[in-house]
Amino acid sequence: MADGGVKTDKDIFLALICGASTVMLGSALSGTDEAPGRVIEDPATHMKKKIYRGMTSPEAVLETLYDSGSSEELDAALETAPEGQEIQVPYRGSVSSILERIRGHLQSSVSYGGEITLAAVRQKVLPDPSAFLVPLSAAARSESYER
What we know:
Layout: H1 9-17, E1 39-41, E2 48-53, H2 58-68, H3 71-79, E3 86-90, H4 96-112, H5 118-125, H6 138-143
Antiparallel strand pairs: 1-2, 2-3
EC number: 1.1.1.205
GO biological process, one term: GTP biosynthetic process
GO molecular function, one term: IMP dehydrogenase activity
């Protein structure tokens, strides 16, 4: 499972071909209608934003335990180091367009791998990933774009 650090569609593809069966997309989908959180308007920019809380943020943990936990669980949670945070992210509307984009990039990546299924690319890459996963040079990176 790829959990954390997934910023681009490329990261999703790399995780899947290198053995992950699941990719967590918390922040990638955080500003969508389907994600939990409330939509607010930024008073400075008048842009819509959504409050995003990682599920191990202090706010999320305390809310969960306040609603259903015991006082001992609440005390233990207050003593635990937080892992997530609460931030404002741009509002992005429905998740469907994001998922369509990811699907398209995965299909394109599979074709670049010379196969017709993700499983076939994984079988090709897993025995020797270094033969397929070559870092881009600075020049190549400047000519490319993030996907």
